[in-house]
Amino acid sequence: MSTERTEAQVRPGVAADLDALTAIYNHYVRETPITFDTAVFTSEERRPWLLSHPEDGPHRLMVATDTDSQGVPGNAQRILGYATSSPFRPKPAYDTSVEVTIYLAPDAGGRGVGTLLYKALFEALADEDVHRAYAGIAQPNEASVRLHERFGFRYVGTYREVGRKFGRYWDVAWYEKDLQPN
């Protein structure tokens, strides 16, 4: 993993990002236990997911893009990754809780992109009626654990062997973060 910092900007996701976002996600579907989806998606199959993350409200999609060699944002920016806040559970009493996640392009890890994405996401959520954020991290994934702990998430428990992918069972460790001062 590279320790080189990446020149990037973070902005809300838009419809034009759908193909690149789908390609990033499909990498994790095909190659890793990070997501428990087991079949790749077409962009059209992912469109409802994108549309469920508007530019305002508690359910956001933030996208990190690279900048050109002078550090000036270009028109055809490569997407380095994305972060989302999504409904935690479908029942109304859960409306003030969100589940957050980050997916990075395979070559974008270890360069601060995840930190930029979470910083922007949590700033965007600061004025929303959101009490807690939760993150489920398929184990092992030390990089994700470190990122979440850096942002104040605390470990709350592990679901043992909760998902089966690639012919084996995987644990998911759960983390939570207070988003509103008590």
UniProtKB/TrEMBL annotation:
Keywords: Acyltransferase, Transferase. InterPro entries: Acyl_CoA_acyltransferase, GNAT_dom. It holds the Pfam family Acetyltransf_4. The keyword Zinc does not apply. It comes from the Bacteria. Residues 8-180 form the N-acetyltransferase domain. The keyword Membrane does not apply. PANTHER family: N-ACETYLTRANSFERASE, UPF0039 PROTEIN C11D3.02C. This is GNAT family N-acetyltransferase.
